[in-house]
Amino acid sequence: HKWHIRALPDEAAVRETLSKQGVAPGMYSIPYCPSPAAMKDPVFKEKLEKGPVAVLVIRKPGLPNMAEFLGAWFAYLLCVSYVVAFVCGQTLSRGTPYMLVFRVAGAVALAGYSFGQIPNAIWWGRPWKSALKEFGDGVVYALLTAGCFGWLWPE
């Protein structure tokens, strides 16, 4: 993931500061604003202008558990496939031609795999390059899903 994650200039100092504060796993905003009304506070506005402005995700310490990640990813794939099957089952009949199944399944799978990347770029500051590359990955997953549904659709 070197193409969308960069190192901080002084990672050691940031890690030490976060460790001293005992920051629990979660998502944090810098500067933090507890309510919409607080966004009007001149002090908060100054913090935004001065920077840095960040959304920080803290994970639990230790090596990533790939089995846990892959299990969650597999569950996600099953959920998207279930929604694709539901929509296709409600809109298509037995014997529907491959290309029609492919288009409907592909459109639904594309929504499930790709469109969620865009709000992350809009609202959370994720680099557009990163969001668009992951959108592209979703296109590939959608095409594979569509191909499987078209191939296995009942005659």
Note down, in words, how this protein is organized.
By secondary structure, this protein is mainly α. The chain is 61% helix and 6% strand. The protein has helices at 11-21, 42-50, 66-91, 98-113, 117-124, 128-152, and strands at 26-30, 54-58. The protein has a two-stranded antiparallel ribbon. The chain starts with 10 loop residues before the first helix and ends with a helix.
Strand order of the largest sheet: 1-2
Secondary-structure-based class equals mainly alpha
The total count of strands amounts to 2
- The stretches of 5 or more residues where confidence is low (pLDDT under 50) are none
Which of globular, elongated, flat, extended, rod-shaped describes the shape?
A: elongated
- Determine the number of helices (DSSP H or I, runs of at least 4 residues): 6
Mean pLDDT, nearest integer? 94
* N-to-C SSE string, H for helix and E for strand: HEHEHHHH
Residues in β-strands, percent: 5-15%
Distance between the termini: 42 Å
Calculate Rg over CA atoms: 21 Å
Characterize the main sheet.
Answer: 2 strands, antiparallel
Proportion of helical residues = 55-70%
Which descriptors would you attach to this protein?
about 160 residues; mainly alpha; two-stranded antiparallel sheet
Write the layout of secondary structure elements.
Blueprint: H1 11-21, E1 26-30, H2 42-50, E2 54-58, H3 66-91, H4 98-113, H5 117-124, H6 128-152
Antiparallel strand pairs: 1-2
